[in-house]
């Protein structure tokens, strides 16, 4: 446990030094997410709004800003991890990947430590923005005082598990930027960040249920926008837990395969 | 000059095929296709085809899907041109070949011409794929004034090239591609009327669209494709684009020369 803690701390310091060496980092932490959020909000401008809008079948018009805010908050949590996993390729380029895998460090602790540190570093600023913005939007219907902390916990845990899984995927490939394209924007479209997945046709719904963010966002909106009780949320929570369990299992299996593959091909230091 | 352009064209094509296997090309195509998908889902499944009353008045047509799909395709085209040209010098710097490029007596005009020609091939491919996918999802091409649209497309390439020179200088100044380019692209997507008409924005934000060549280029291209407008009907947009190109060209040429000198002194000196 002590070793795990020190490993986690070392990873946090490394990520911090790696990312916060210049003030430019604040662009990716705050400026881009805010511009993207505002662009998404205005993307709805060409459509008919108001009480009788077809949108009301899924979200009330007043709750649209809150719907987008929660969507983007969830997306930023997950996006940070896609980005951090993509940066695994830098470990390969810099030659540090080999050092990590030669050391006796617990591989899973390394993966989840990496996810946790990049997540906390990556979301705090936009998180503060969303907290501030929540005071200015209508439509908040909390399940209770415990709803915001629980929503945060759901996002945190699910995002870390997702991040660990992505890191393993990126271990397999040298040209990992392709995965970045495949995993980043589809998440934005299909996971209910901007549009409700319930409105989608069946084939799109199938894709949306492949992303854990879909389940996490559904829970968060039930907690913050629909005043749902814990009992009514139990099925959704169970579903998310099952998806996370599958992801953790896949991470463990794939990690072994990736290490074996890298040892066999010697591509741990190739880029 | 044409020898240099040809050599740059062949080298860049080989690099693209051998060293960076298609990741940027596929990335840009996907990005455009996702915009198409978003427009399709939002229009058909969420809003059941119902538009705001002002939309037709602001755009001159009530064909939202063509509006949004062309926006996505043209935005991907602009991003691709800007990235390929502006990153050329800093990529040379990163790969260690910039010193050789700067020391050879080759004309810089030829170098950039080769770059543009090579990236034209790429963007034409990307653009065609996005438009084809768009046609499946509801883009109407039957009213297109083909020659006007092609000419606007070519003129837009010139405008984006001039903007890319400024972006390239900034990249060399900051020694960064990631933050500089993505900040510009995020602002471009917001203020240039890619997925919604610019007048929907607050009045104080709208002038930002005026300094982006994408806004008049996209406006002119949409009119040629959706309404079949002839070239003279979009002349205000073309003049706007030409004026912006001139300003960006002057700043860009000055910036690139300055940055080259700075790079020579600070890195190789």
TrEMBL record, chain A:
InterPro entries linked: ABC2_TM, ABC2_TM_bact-type, Nod_factor_ABC_transporter
Membrane-traversing stretches: 24-44, 64-82, 119-137, 149-172, 202-220, 232-255
One function term, GO molecular function aspect: ABC-type transporter activity
ABC transmembrane type-2 domain ranges (all copies): 24-258
Pfam families per record: ABC2_membrane
Annotated membrane topology: Multi-pass membrane protein
Record protein name field: Transport permease protein
From TrEMBL, chain B:
Pfam families in UniProt: ABC2_membrane
UniProt keywords, alphabetically: Cell membrane, Membrane, Transmembrane, Transmembrane helix, Transport
InterPro entries: ABC2_TM, ABC2_TM_bact-type, ABC_2_transport, Nod_factor_ABC_transporter
Domain spans labelled ABC transmembrane type-2: 27-259
Entry GO MF terms: ABC-type transporter activity
Membrane topology, record value: Multi-pass membrane protein
Domain of life according to the entry: Bacteria
Location of this chain's protein in the cell: Cell membrane; Membrane
One GO CC annotation: ATP-binding cassette (ABC) transporter complex
Main location: membrane
Homology family: Belongs to the ABC-2 integral membrane protein family.
PANTHER family xrefs: ABC-TYPE MULTIDRUG TRANSPORT SYSTEM, PERMEASE COMPONENT, NODULATION PROTEIN J
Protein name listed in UniProt: Transport permease protein
Organism for this UniProt entry: Brevibacillus formosus
């Amino acid at each position: 446990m002590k070793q795990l803690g020190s490993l986690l701390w070392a990873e946090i310091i490394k990520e911090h030094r790696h990312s916060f060496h210049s003030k430019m980092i604040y662009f990716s932490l705050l400026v881009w997410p805010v511009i993207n959020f505002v662009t998404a909000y205005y993307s709805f401008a060409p459509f008919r709004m108001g009480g009788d809008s077809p949108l009301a079948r899924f979200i009330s018009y007043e709750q649209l800003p809150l719907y987008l805010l929660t969507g983007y908050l969830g997306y930023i949590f997950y996006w940070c991890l896609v980005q951090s996993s993509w940066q695994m390729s830098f470990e390969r380029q810099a030659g540090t990947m080999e050092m990590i895998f030669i050391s006796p460090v617990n591989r899973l602790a390394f993966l989840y430590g990496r996810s946790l540190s990049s997540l906390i570093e990556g979301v705090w600023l936009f998180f503060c923005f969303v907290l501030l913005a929540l005071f200015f939007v209508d439509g908040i219907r909390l399940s209770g005082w415990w709803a915001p902390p629980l929503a945060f916990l759901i996002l945190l845990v699910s995002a870390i598990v997702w991040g660990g899984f992505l890191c393993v995927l990126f271990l397999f490939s040298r040209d990992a930027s392709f995965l970045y394209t495949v995993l980043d924007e589809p998440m934005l479209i299909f996971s209910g960040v901007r549009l409700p997945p319930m409105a989608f046709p069946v084939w799109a719904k199938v894709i949306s249920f492949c992303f854990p963010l879909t389940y996490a966002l559904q829970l968060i909106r039930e907690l913050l926008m629909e005043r749902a009780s814990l009992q009514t949320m139990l099925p959704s929570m169970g579903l998310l837990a099952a998806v996370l369990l599958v992801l953790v299992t896949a991470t463990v299996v794939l990690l072994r395969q990736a290490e074996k593959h890298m040892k066999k091909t010697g591509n741990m230091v190739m880029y | 000059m044409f020898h240099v352009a040809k050599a740059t064209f062949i080298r860049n094509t080989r690099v693209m095929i051998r060293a960076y296997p298609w990741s940027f090309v596929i990335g840009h195509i996907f990005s455009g296709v996702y915009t198409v998908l978003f427009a399709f889902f939002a229009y058909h499944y969420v809003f059941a085809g119902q538009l705001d009353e002002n939309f037709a008045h602001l755009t001159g047509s009530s064909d939202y899907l063509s509006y949004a799909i062309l926006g996505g395709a043209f935005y991907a085209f602009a991003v691709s041109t800007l990235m390929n040209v502006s990153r050329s010098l800093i990529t040379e710097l990163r790969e260690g070949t910039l010193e050789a490029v700067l020391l050879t007596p080759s004309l810089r005009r030829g170098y950039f011409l080769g770059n543009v020609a090579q990236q034209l091939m790429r963007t034409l491919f990307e653009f065609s794929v996005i438009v084809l996918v768009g046609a499946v999802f509801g883009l109407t091409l039957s009213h297109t004034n083909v020659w006007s649209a092609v000419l606007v497309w070519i003129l837009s390439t010139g405008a984006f090239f001039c903007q890319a020179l400024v972006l390239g200088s900034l990249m060399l100044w900051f020694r960064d591609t990631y933050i500089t380019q993505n900040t510009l692209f995020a602002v471009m997507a917001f203020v240039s009327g890619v997925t919604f008409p610019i007048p929907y924005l607050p009045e104080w934000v709208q002038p930002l669209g005026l300094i982006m060549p994408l806004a008049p280029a996209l406006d002119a291209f949409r009119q040629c494709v959706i309404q079949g407008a002839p070239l003279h009907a979009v002349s205000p947009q073309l003049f706007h684009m030409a004026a912006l190109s001139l300003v960006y060209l002057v700043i860009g040429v000055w910036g690139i020369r300055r940055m080259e000198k700075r790079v020579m002194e600070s890195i190789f000196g």
